Amino acid sequence: MTREMAAPVHVTAGIGIFFMTICTAETGLMQKSIAPNSISEGQVINFTGLFILLFGVAVTVTVALRRISV
Predict the structure, then answer these.
(1) pTM over 0.70, yes/no
(2) Phi first, then psi: what are they for 39, rounded to 5°?
(3) Residue by residue, what is the 3-state secondary structure of the chain?
(4) Which residues contact 11 (CB under 8 A, 6 or more apart)?
(5) To the nearest 10°, the Cα dihedral for 20, 17, 19, 37?
(6) Which stretches are transmembrane (predicted)?
(7) What is the CA radius of gyration of the chain?
């Protein structure tokens, strides 16, 4: 019974921590992209930021759909 009661809190806290790590990574990329050394470096930074964001959305949707289907 205790495990069932703790699961929603555990999942919510995990998603919150995951979002904080995504925000930290995006903030670091923003600081790096203020003055890129070349155009190609800026493109790599932008692609990396977009990939991190889409990865975060995919993981969150996967977790949310898993909770709905169970």
Answers:
(1) yes
(2) -65, -40
(3) CHHHHHHHHHHHHHHHHHHHHHHHHHHHHHHHCCCCCCHHHHHHHHHHHHHHHHHHHHHHHHHHHHHHHC
(4) 63, 67
(5) 40
(6) 44-65
(7) 17
Q: Are 15 and 23 in contact (CB under 8 A)?
A: no
Closest of 19, 41, 23, 20 to residue 32, by C-alpha: 41
> CB–CB of 14/56 below 8 Å?
no
Q: What is the pLDDT along the chain (70 residues), one digit of tens a residue?
A: 688 888 889 989 999 999 999 999 999 998 877 777 788 888 889 999 999 999 999 999 999 887 676 5
